[in-house]
Amino acid sequence: MRIAFLGPAGTYGEQAALRLAALEGIMEPDLQPQVGIRAVVQALASGLCDAAVVPVENSVEGGVTACLDALWEHPDLRVARALVLPIRHALLGSGPISGISEVLSHPQALAQSSGWLAEHLPTALQLPTSSTAEAARMVAGSRFRAAVASLQAAQEHGLQVLAYPVNDVAGNCTRFLLLRRGERSTEGPLASLAFSLHANRPGALLQALACFAQRDLNMSRIESRPSKREMGEYIFFVDLELPAGYEPLRQALEELRPLCEHLAVFGAYPLTQIEESAFEPQAG
C-alpha cells in the first residue's frame, strides 16, 4: 500500500500516516513523501499512490486551505478515515539558543508557536518552509538557524532539542484525513461535504443550513473558501455528526441540492482521537 504524505521524513503527517495505516489494518505501508499538500493529493489523484494523508484542520489556526481546495477540485477522491493527533512542537538546532537569528518552519507551526518565539527569540527572523521536517533538514549543521518541528524530526536530521514544547496552546492538535479513490461511503459517524449556492442573496445560506438543523444534524465545523471565480462567491465546507446514521443526511441533501450550484459529499467515515495520555512523541 503506497501512502503519500507531506514530507520529508519526520513530519507530523508521517506520524499520522503510520497511525492511520494501522487503524486500516495496513501492514508495512510504503510511505511516499511529497513536497506540498497539493502534491500529496495529486499523487493520489494521478494513481501514483493508493492513499494520501493530509492535514485538514488545526485547533489553533483553523482549516488548512490547500487541503480544502484540493478536495473540492478532485471529485474522484473520498475521505476514508480521520485522525486527531496532538501536536507538540520543539525548537531544534545545532548551536546554542542564544545564537539563533533565524527560525524556520511551516507557516502553521510558526503561527502555533508565535507567542513562545516572541518571548524567547524576539529578534529572530521567521522563515516559512513547505513542512516542519523540511525546516529541520534545512537547519542541520547551522549555528544560527533553528527549526520548529517534532521530536522525531530531531532524530531524523541529527539535531539537538533546544526547547520543548514551544507551541503556545497545550491542547494543540491537528485533524488528518486519509484519502482514497473510489465511491464515497455513506457509513460512519461523521460526514464531510461542500457546496456553493446559486445566488448571493439575503438568507440563502440560512436556508441551506436549515436543511441540516431541521433534522437535528449538528455541524462540528463550517468554513468558507472563495470560489476563485468572482468576488463575493464562496464554497462552504461542512462537517456533520451522524448519530442516527446516514438517512437524515440523505434527506437533508435531497432538500439542499436544488439550492446549490455545486454540491460534493466527500464521504462518511470514522474519526479516531488520540488522547494526550496515549500520545508519546517518538525521538527515534
Describe the structure.
With about 280 residues, this protein is α/β, with parallel strands linked by helices. It folds into three domains: about 100 residues, D-Maltodextrin-Binding Protein, domain 2 (3-Layer(aba) Sandwich), CATH 3.40.190.10; about 70 residues, Periplasmic binding protein-like II (D-Maltodextrin-Binding Protein, domain 2), CATH 3.40.190; about 80 residues, ACT domain (Alpha-Beta Plaits, 2-Layer Sandwich), CATH 3.30.70.260. The chain is about 25% helix and about 35% strand. The protein contains nine helices and 16 strands. The strands form three sheets. Strands 1, 2, 3, 4, 5, 11 and 16 form a seven-stranded mixed beta sheet that branches. A five-stranded mixed beta sheet has the order 8-7-9-6-10. A four-stranded antiparallel beta sheet has the order 13-14-12-15, sandwiched between helices. A hairpin with a 7-residue loop joins β13 and β14. The longest helix is centred in the first third of the chain and has 12 residues. The mean pLDDT is about 90.
What tags apply to this protein structure?
alpha/beta, D-Maltodextrin-Binding Protein, domain 2, seven-stranded mixed β-sheet, five-stranded mixed β-sheet, globular, 27% helix
Topology of helices and strands:
Layout lengths: L1 E5 L5 H12 L6 E5 L2 H9 L5 E8 L3 E2 L1 H9 L3 E10 L3 E4 L8 E4 L1 H6 L1 H7 L4 E4 L3 H8 L5 E5 L1 H7 L2 E4 L9 E9 L8 E8 L6 H10 L5 E8 L7 E8 L5 H10 L3 E10 L1 E3 L11
Parallel strand pairs: 1-2, 1-3, 5-16, 7-8, 7-9
Antiparallel strand pairs: 3-4, 3-11, 5-11, 6-9, 6-10, 12-14, 12-15, 13-14
